[in-house]
Amino acid sequence: MSPEIAWLIVRATIQTLHMVAVAAVIGSIIGVPLGVFLATSEKGELFEAPITNKVLGAIVNAARSTPFIILVVAIIPFTRLVAGTSIGTTAAIVPLTIATIPFVARLVEASIREVDPGLIETARSMGATPMQIVLKVLLAEARPGITLALTLTIVSLIGYSAMVGAVGGGGLGDLGIRYGYQRFMPEVMLAVVVVLIVLVQIVQSIGDGLARRFDKRQRSR
Fold first, then answer.
1. If 0-12 CB within 10 Å is exposed, 13-18 middle and 19+ buried, where does residue 55 land?
2. Nearest by Cα to 161 from 81, 60, 76, 88
3. Could you state, in order of their start, the residue ranges of all structural domains in the chain?
4. Full pLDDT tens readout for the chain, 221 residues
């Protein structure tokens, strides 16, 4: 492999990491609170708002059910409005972030709902406010699940970032298509696949390690 191709792979990897990192951070900032609200806003729960819960739930379900590649194309006008362009790594962050928000929200909701309801009732009986219960009970107890949820989100984003290369999004997917497929350079395609696998393995290993560290049951053994 020539130095030029090696540099292209390095640059594409950096672009992929940039897209994934920004989308994961922004998507989590919005998606985690949304997931907490979905898990605590049904009838009789901490922030009772069943109508709002149903509306937001429907929006989240609609966003999650849309195939990512279709989402990328469908929101091109919005992407152009936000990023000023519809191609490149900056533009790719927009659909990646939009896809991340409902994904994170549902995973966080599931993690919150796994917390023992008895802990919530105990905190209520001790006079804790709903926000205190969320911060000191729900999020604290659900940390392992939320960590794994965010890990899964980042792993999925790595795959999505490769997919968005098909529409000029830059990164490893774009490199694989332009050089590996269109220019018939299988060694480039192989290198892209290997780099993506390595990135996924690193992220998964870190996420699993953090989840075990946060898990009280593991620490008590």
1. exposed
2. 88
3. 3-112+138-215
4. 678 888 889 999 999 999 999 999 999 999 999 999 999 999 988 899 999 999 999 999 999 899 998 998 899 899 999 988 888 888 899 999 999 999 999 999 999 999 988 898 899 889 889 899 999 999 999 999 999 999 999 999 998 988 887 777 788 888 888 887 777 788 888 998 999 999 999 999 999 999 988 886 555 44
pTM, entire model: 0.88
CA 33 to chain centre: 14
Specify the fold of 3-112+138-215: MetI-like fold (1.10.3720)
In terms of Cα–Cα distance, which of 151, 38, 178 is closest to 102?
A: 38
CA distance 87 to 191: 23
